[in-house]
Amino acid sequence: MPQTDQLAGKGAVVVVGRIVVWAFFVFACVAGLFTLVFGLTGAITSLAADSTPLILALDHALPAAADRGSATIVSGGYDSASIVVSGLDSGTVVLATLARIAGILTQAAIAASVALLAWRLLRGYTFRRSLSLTTAFTGALLLIGGLVSGGVGMLASWMAADQLNGHSTGGGFWPMIGTVDGAPFGIGICLLLVGLAFEYGERLQRDTEGLV
Description:
By secondary structure, this protein is mostly helical. The chain is built from 4 helices and 2 strands, in the order αββααα. Helix 1 runs antiparallel to helix 2 (about 90-125) and helix 2 (about 90-125) runs antiparallel to helix 3 (about 130-165).
């Protein structure tokens, strides 16, 4: 399949387009490397220091000090807390670390996919098989990575909450509830649809090649 020239030439629109795509390429490369290096370093450091970062669900009302001014809170409460815990059992630490690493690898893979997409566009291959496959692959990564990271992370949060509550009466401070971020799933489905659109564009380009 011949190259396309949407980003070739010297027109103002073309130049701006190339700058934008180059910016996406550079940003994706830097973000991927940053995520891998600092994310994995942080995970290793947490393991060595026996300090596991977690986000636990909460279901508590706001304290009276929250509205001592002229305004009054009608309703509200805490729904989560970001904490660092030590002394967890090995199973909880392993699950929390796996969830964290799954999230890091998913983000890095997505950054790599975006960089590849930008590079293919800069090379002039707009509707190419690799473009549609990469887009669909990125969407699948978001779905799988979100499922693994969210599911395993929620299980680790439950186990940590149980250990923090101990044998407290009335269920303890930390409720045994969990939340899963639905954004990766929605974005993943959208990217899968975009991948299908690219595949349709590829077939259309191939079928109409040489007609004009």
